[in-house]
Amino acid sequence: MHSSQLICSLVAVLYVTSCSDSPSPTPVPRTQQIWFEEVREASGVDFVHSLGSKQRFWIPEVTGSGLALFDADGDQDLDLFLVQGADLIGEGGPASSDELWLNHGDGTFTNATEAAGISESSFGMGCAVGDYDGDGDLDLYVTNMGSNVLLRNRGDATFEDVALEAGVAHNSWGTSAAFLDYDGDGDLDLFVTNYLRWNSDSEVPCKSKLGSPDYCHPNNYDAPDADALFENQGDGTFRDISASSGMAEVFGNGLGVAWGDMTGDGLIDIYVANDGMANQLWVNQGQGKFQDRALLKGCALSGEGKAEAGMGVIFEDLNGDLKPDLFVTHLRAETNTFYSSGRRRFSDDTRKTGTAQASTLVTGFGTGAADFDQDGVLDIYVTNGRVGDAMPRFSNERPLAEPDQVFVGTGGGVFEELQPRGGIAEDFFSVGRGMALGDIDGDGDIDVVLQDNSASVRILRNVAPKKGSWVMCDVREANGSQALGARVELTQGDLVQTRQVQSAYSYCSSGDPRVHFGLGSGSGPLQLEITWLDGTQEHFDGLATEQVHQLIRGQGQ
Question: What predicted TM-score, i.e. pTM, was given to this entire model?
Fold first, then answer.
C-alpha cells in the first residue's frame, strides 16, 4: 500500500509479459440494481474495530484487520470471528479483545467471546481456519504484530491458545495465513505471510501532497520480511520448514495469500501478493521444497512489468474456462489485476475484463468471488479504503473511506461495475480491509462481511434479484474434515462450472469453504465430479437444487 508521497516504483527489466494486443470488448451498460443491504444492527453484532485513542501516522494503523466466517460450534451455520486492533504502545487504555459471535442460524448473533475463553488483545491482523489436529472441529490461527496465536477448539466452541506448545507462535508482523495440506499427507500444514520488520523506532515521517502528515510507503522502511511455512507433524505440533523449503530465501512485503494447484502438476502451490514488490508464486517441487516461479509464470508483475501494491487475492475460475485464475487488488491509480490461467503461464488480461478503469479510482483490499445473482457466472466483490489522504475525497468525515465495488460477471471473463457502487442503496463509504463471503442467514445465497478500519463491522445481506436456482456442497474427507483443496465440477446441461474448496483468500480473512453454484437458466439433472487432493475422482449425481448437500469421500461413484 502506498501513501501519496515518497512513492517508490520498481521497474522490471527483461520481463516477458503475456499480454494480448487484441482490442478490449465493447463496453456494456452498467447494471443499476440494489444487491445488498446493511444489516449489522439487526444482526446484533456491535463490534467496533479499534486502534486506540491516538493517531500517529504509523504504518500499522492503515493495515486494518481481518475476520473469519466458520462453524465454531458444529451446528451447521456460520459463526463470526473478528480480529481486533490495539494501541501500538499501550496508551489507549484497556485493550479490546478479538471477538467470537455465534450465529442463531438466521443471521442474528450472540457475543460468545468470554464464554469461549478468548481474551486475545494483541495488535491483530488476520486469521485462518482449519482442523489442524484432526479432532473434527475447527481451530483458529490469528496473526498479530508480535507473537501469533493458535486457538484450539475444545469441541464446544471454547478455545485455548496452544501456539507455543504447537511451535507456531512465530513472533513477526503476520498478515494473511492459510491452513493447507501442501504435502498431501492428510493433515493441515500452516503458511503465514509476513509484512515488514517494523517497530516504533523504525518509523519515518511522511507527508501527503496536501502537506499534512500521512502514512509512508512500505518500501520507505526497506524491511521486507520472509514468509513462514510450518509442517504438521500429525501430533498437534508443527515444524518450521521455512528455511529448508526455500521460502526464507526471498523477502517481500506480504499481505495476501491464496493456494492451490497453479501449475497443473497435482501439487499444491502458494501465491503471495506483495505490497510494492514483485509477487511470489511458490511452486511445489515435492519433498518439502518450493521455488518462486512468479516471474516465469507471468504473475509477479503487471502486464507493463511493474510491481504493484498487492493486498487481496482470489484463486478461482473467473472466466469460465474451467481453469482457475488469479485476481489481485491494488492501490488507487493501479488497476486490480486479472491474471488469466493459460497452458503454461498466467497472462495479465485486466484490460479485457472491463474492471481496469473503475479499479484505478479506489484502493482495494479484501475481495472474493461468488455468484451473487445466481445466473451461473461468478461476480467479484472488492472492499476499498485508502491508505493515505488525497483529493478528491469521497467523505470529508473519513478521508480514507471509499465505496466498495461489485463487478458483475457477464461471461467469458468480462465484468460490469454494479451501480450504485457496492450495490447498496445508501451512501456506503468505509475503510475496508478484511472481507469474507458466506451464507450467514441460511437462505442459500452469499452474503458479505467486512472489517471497516477503526469503525463498526459491516454485514451485508444479499438481496440481489436472482436469475436462477442454486446448490451448495459441503465437501468432506472420509473422516469428516473439510476437504480443503478438492475441486468440484458441476454440469447441468450445457452449463459447466468449477470451484475449489477453500477458505483462505481475500485479505487477512477466512471464508465459508462450502462450494456454492448459481444455476442460471440451466435445466436437467445435476452432475458433480470431485477431484480430491490426491487426484482421485468421484461422482455425485442426482442432487436436488436449493439445498446444501454434504458430500463425503467414498460415498459417491
Answer: 0.94
